[in-house]
């Protein structure tokens, strides 16, 4: 019924492993937790985030520098200056970094600075972008479209893989529905289905799915329980001051607590979450950052 | 924003406990698992189900005798003869029984025979039925409407409670959406929200939500992980021969395995699932059933 | 694909005509326009409405006396006193009257007083009510459920007809969707499809569909253009003071203008709208109302 | 509530006129009908279409040469060779031509050959493409996203206009919903709302909205009746042989009949449809096509 070829689950135990750094890989027994703000606002902001998270089980940082905004008059992201911020925190804190790519012209620069390129929901069927990402040379985090069927989502991944890039991680982030109590409806059945249909890693973004921080932690546990390979969660040093999506970001303290609370759930379903080095642990700074 | 009075969570640790038998209660630390077929087809069928499940952690039986069917020409359920079947298995196997009520005229008979009356999705806003159930004298299992908002769901419960019956358990069972890969979209964020908004127990029906048996077990785990107080899951001695919803029913063996697999997840979030007495354990039959 | 029997279009020119008074019938060349408030509030209110509309092309009155409300604390309608109001205006102004029935127990009383019983969206799959309406002895106005598929809608009509009542008029009134700019999404393709699938008359309720009065008139024209057999439109002497759905009701003046503006559209598609007798025309009052 | 600036309706009678040829303009009293196949398949195919339609009231041709397809293995369109076909029929039959642009890299070539660049539903929030189209130098036909709110749609137009291109025509083409009887749900209330919110022309694509040819004509009439400024309708010399969307294309004969049937509806709402020169009228061929 779903006519994927390259991403289709062809035999039961095939599982693609997508490596984004020496130690961080999606699709293995260990789950990958990505944390960080919706938008990169300054080096200081990202350093504060990284300092808090580096000692926790959060293994990768997120932060948007090219932002898809409904209004052309809303802040569109720091652009290249933001990429520079990401490169600095990446190097200083030794954490891989994920950021969104919105157009073919941005691919080269982003791929130079970060470890994983995110395709946002609004671009899930931007087929020319998907084809170009087949040659990006870096792993892709492909978010489900706002109203994409499971078939369309799988076939979007097939576009990237069939154009040369096997390193695709799928991300369920909620779909549009009639109830505005939550921003979107988190579709965990899609996670289960995608794990059965494809051999790609599948992660979950509960923050964008629900849009209310008080709902994030229980849904993160649910995602782990049903077999997700990781999570991407928004957090911010001062959530209420976030330039975008302020209502859904966790404080850094809550982020660390949330991740800790996931560990027993992961174990209950045969998975693990990386060791905590200790909240606030700060490694020796590297003197000369590129 | 949601103007519930009686069912609203007024102070943090208020939790309604809904007791359906001496030993089975929703809302406590122990989760309640309800199992059984979509439709009661015969005494033999229900006995087979009960024999398998009584020794497992499944604590209550389900089975429809009045069936809401899209077509007037589809089997409408066994009716009163089915109530008699339910009464017999209830007595023989000492398990509380849940069945659907479709109209005010059925309340008295159903309340005489079973332990909990289910209001189906299509009747969630059948307000006259809800009012009448305020006087049913038995606990109510209220399923979310196919496209009911969280507010409408909460207020439907308020109808029952404000008309005299405080024993309401909410059940998330999937909402309508655009993708027909699954039958509905299971909305676990609603479970989390309902637990925050109300003090009522909230359970999940993953079977009707997804409509495909291979997706049920992981979603049952997810439901437990995000804080559900129980599950209602379809199972059948010969799923492919079920007179209704054959595609989603589990075999009895898979049902028992599923329930066992939930135990570590429950523990991981501070909950428990009742002891297993041993699969297939058969108590001494009672000689004279009413 | 849709397994209706009695309501299915079996040969191209079969069209059921549903007569609700000597001169008002759905399904013929002449369209039927029903107008009136969401809720019957007083005899005075209904008289004001009737006085304005009786001279226009509006041929029937609507007004709810049993109201399905999300909250049990909202006004539930005038009940039997409201039926009495409807009976009086019906008799005084010689206009047939439509009102909603919410439960089996109300059928007899409502059928005694009014000319057509409306089944609301929330009860479209209240199958026991549908079956009982098969014996109501009066025509049924069946509104589409909030998230009912076309198949489910057709089969709901089949319930009524197969239980003995061939006089069913279908009403499209908008379905739930993700955008809250309008209250629901008016699905005129459903009207076209229903006219092809069944031989029943199909009318449109643009007021509930969109929930904003400034959108009603153009959509009423669209409904006529695509083949609807009539319209049901909310209007109120003082829309902003309506006890329910104030945002969508037209003033009585706007209602009359709207109906006039439909006439050329009706003619353009080979239909007619009844003669205007002149706005405000008042017939000799009947001295002794029942 | 909707924070558009440049496209917002600021005073009641402001209406943008978008000219795509000397004689064809959107937004005036005369409606614009665009016809043609989903996909350009050959010069012969497009000539057959143009021969049939040039004598009718269809004023512009459509045909995709870059095709957004769910699967990377489906036909992706003729590409530049298709642009050449469009240029030839445009010149031979003196009809303006519309085709879809999928990426920034295609803009220059497409803008050289055709009269209007279409942004497809999947790219409605491809913001970098929208920004670049601000400099395209040709009018834009912006289709509503599959699950775009009215606000998002309006703001997508604002992106194009605020980047330098005032010539934007909006196109409602159906939104995703739960019923698969039709492909999407045609949202004519959005047309009415968009006409009130913005001063841009708004047209309707009933073919993609419903996906079934037997529903297209009545919905085209409905679109005209509610105030649409034009229509874009799929037709094909042999609909059942169309390489894409075969189920929804009209035959060329049906297309001409449909357009004729719209004329009285247009008149009924104070609009006109261009004169018919006579079906099949063939102008003197131009000897040397570029």
TrEMBL record, chains A, B, C, D:
EC number assigned by the record: 2.5.1.54
Name the enzyme group at the top EC level.
transferase
User: In what residue span(s) does the DAHP synthetase I/KDSA domain sit?
Assistant: 17-258
Q: Which Pfam families match?
A: DAHP_synth_1
* GO MF annotation: an example: 3-deoxy-7-phosphoheptulonate synthase activity
Q: Would the keyword Cell division be found if you checked this record's keyword annotation?
A: no
Q: Which SUPFAM superfamilies match?
A: Aldolase
- Name the Gene3D superfamilies on file: Aldolase class I (3.20.20.70)
Q: Which PANTHER family match?
A: PHOSPHO-2-DEHYDRO-3-DEOXYHEPTONATE ALDOLASE, PROTEIN AROA(G)
Q: Report the NCBIfam families cross-referenced here.
A: DAHP_synth_Bsub, PRK08673.1, PRK12595.1
Q: What is this protein called?
A: 3-deoxy-7-phosphoheptulonate synthase
Q: Which organism is it from?
A: Nostoc parmelioides FACHB-3921
What gene, per UniProt, encodes this protein? aroF
